[in-house]
Amino acid sequence: MKSVVITGASTGIGWASAKLLLDKGFRVFGSVRKQADAERLKSEFGANFTPLLFDVTDEAAVLAAAREVRAALNGETLAGLVNNAGIAVAGPVLELPADDFRRQMDVNVIGPIIATQAFGPLLGSDPSLKGPKGRIVMISSVAGKLALSPRAAEGARLCGATQRHRTAGGKDRRMHLRCPDLASSQGTIPARAGSAAAPDDGLVAQAHGRQDHRQAPRADAARVSFKG
Fold first, then answer.
1. 122 in helix, strand or coil?
2. How many CB atoms are closer than 10 A to CB 15?
3. Which of 13, 29, 163, 228 would you call most buried, defined as having the most Cβ atoms within 10 angstroms of its Cβ?
4. How many C-beta atoms surround the C-beta of residue 34 within 10 A?
5. Using a CB cutoff of 8 Å and minimum separation of 24, what contacts does 46-51 make?
């Protein structure tokens, strides 16, 4: 059974991605920040879902979760990492406190770096693991292409994250990287609902908006496909 790690799985895009992959026969490790969410998702999704309790800004906790996943894989590679967890800090640059801007960057830019470094070896850069190389999916937003004044911090982090991971994908061939152009995504599935996925040669996530793993969920939608 192939396995995938999804950050920010409690609601929204992360929840929908987990459900879709579970329906397709994958084992899913999904990160949450609250024990109550871990218990709820375990009840909703069943035996093939394993909750991972961490905040993406807590490097020690993310590394501990990566060790947990490694043990569960029993020498096999991880099929995919979906960097989905994020927040949206609203406010124009001139009025947004620096601490709020910094928090936006810590969660949405540094967080995916921490997760990628922690789970990256499991995707195939560790030669001791058996199986095909996995893929990384970055969930982003059209705000990275069209940043509006009230969403200045979100636009800045999305633009930076998108370009950073495109660069990473071009340099590191030990794993596959997908950073979809979200402005041109077609078709969606509602958050907290599964759907038939479009054919593709690997793991692809196309999403409108962001799933916020710290604040109240928004009416986001996602489309995820994995064809092994």
1. helix
2. 26
3. 13
4. 12
5. 46/22, 48/1, 48/22, 49/18, 49/22, 51/9
In 3D space, the residue among 66, 86, 63, 64 whose CA is nearest the CA of residue 78 turns out to be 66
The per-residue pLDDT for range 189-204, each reduced to its tens digit, is 333 333 233 333 333 3
Strand, helix or coil for residue 98: helix
| Domains of the chain: residue spans and CATH | 3-225 (3.40.50.720)
Q: In whole angstroms, give the CA distance from residue 115 to residue 66.
A: 9
Q: For residue 48, what are the CA distances in angstroms to 5, 9, 45, 206?
A: 12, 14, 7, 24
Show the tokens assigned to 93.
Answer: 């640059």
The token duo for 51 is 């909750």
Burial class (CB in 10 A: 0-12, 13-18, 19+), 40: middle
DSSP characters for 15-78?
A: HHHHHHHHHTT-EEEEEES-HHHHHHHHHHH-TTEEEEE--TT-HHHHHHHHHHHHHHHTTBPP
Cα(206)–Cα(187) distance, rounded to whole angstroms?
Answer: 9
Diameter over CA atoms, the chain = 51
- Report phi then psi at 89, rounded to 5: -95, 115
pLDDT digits (tens, 9 = 90+) for 21-62: 999 999 999 999 999 999 999 999 999 999 999 999 999 999
Q: Directed axis angle between helix 59-73 and helix 111-119, to 10°?
A: 30
Alpha helices per DSSP H over 120-223? 152-171
The Cβ of residue 92 has, within 10 Å, a number of other Cβ atoms equal to: 12
